[in-house]
Request: fold
Amino acid sequence: MVRATRRQAIQVATVALSAVLAVPAGAEAIDRIGVPGPLSFAGTPYALAWSAQPTPAYYKQEYLPAGQTVERWRMLLVELLEGGSVASAASAQVRTINARKGKDPLANLAVIENKQSGEIIVDFLIGGRDAQGGEIAEWNAYRYASFKGANGRSGVLLFAISHRAYGNEAIGAFLGRLKTFRSDEIKRLAAQTLPSPSLGTKR
Reply:
């Protein structure tokens, strides 16, 4: 089993954060972890749209709803990190977001820990620019849970919801809505039945 070092955990958080601010070019929808989708969240189906294996121990897959539009952009993420712990993965994400403060005026976060289950939700807002230089605002809720798979493989499972807005006018409306839908989305995320990945479908 591959063990994740603290450096790997930080690398994973950085890769995950940069990915949410840039839609992958030449998207490849290969199920690498045994979660082909569609996945359902809040009554909406999300189909597998992109996947990657940035490191030997780290897998990520992104799912989009049908009829996705820039005005109502949202995405589900499922990621696996073999080895490591929920606390170290969540802490790495928190450090990455905190490092944006001072450069990103929207950067903000909250951490919700479930003592009973050992799960952690990192609720955060970030800003950035797209390839054309247009402004982006993105709110995410990342739910980290322990993963135990076949053949003794274990580590951290991430299940996340992401919402994004483009341009000043849309961002203003988005931030206004965030006050109301944020808490509801977090409740839905916390109650969501997590997928059961099985590694080794495709590499």
